[in-house]
Amino acid sequence: FYVMDFTQTDERNRLSDYESLLYLDTAASRIDFRYTAPLSYSCAGTGMAFFRSSWEDNAFWASFQSGGEHLCGHQNLDQGHITINYLGKDILIDAGMWREEIAGGGRIRNFSPASFWHNTIMVESGASGTPIPQTPYGERKALAFEDTGDYLYARAEITGAYSQGGGENAPQIRKVEREIIYIRPTAIVVI
Predict the structure, then answer these.
(1) How far apart are CA 156 and CA 42, in angstroms?
(2) Span 124-153, mean pLDDT?
(3) What beta strand segments (E) does the chain contain?
(4) pLDDT recorded at residue 17
(5) How many Å apart are CA 124 and CA 137, to the nearest integer?
(6) Considering only CA atoms, which of 66, 65, 164 is closest in space to residue 123?
(7) Residues 86-96, mean pLDDT to the nearest whole number
(8) Which of 39, 65, 106, 138 has a C-alpha 20 to 30 A away from that of 167?
(9) What Rg do the C-alpha atoms of the chain give, in angstroms?
């Protein structure tokens, strides 16, 4: 439905031969995805989970980074990260997003994968109080993802993201978990 509708409404949106081969099936019946597509999805490979209230333009939607292999899908140091959008407005954002800026006639690529730029859990180091950054080392995993239609529950164990490769910070951190409870259409609790 989307490909046929999108490409038939504006000449500028015509598909290339390659795109037509992959996406266009003129024999397929038109189905409005807003009534058939699921309202949540959890991807085991990247650890990303997505959920929403509906497919309407003003829907509540959120994402949750809950495990996965480091650098799978260009991951940052953002285990436990959450974004929220409501009524088309960003409530919690991913401030570490990649952006390209033009400054002084040249291009600057600005991208911050650091935990500080994400809505994740910051852990301080003992007496010094300095933050322990996440690293690509250690195990992180999604422990739960359940969507009943009325509510969604997701939980991730992200202790390994703070392991520093088994370095000095590893023994200081016993357990770091993040949980999300989303009650449709617009109530969310982040633990």
Answers:
(1) 12
(2) 85
(3) 40-42, 48-52, 61-65, 82-86, 89-92, 99-103, 106-110, 123-125, 130-132, 141-147, 151-157, 177-183, 187-190
(4) 74
(5) 18
(6) 164
(7) 87
(8) 65
(9) 20
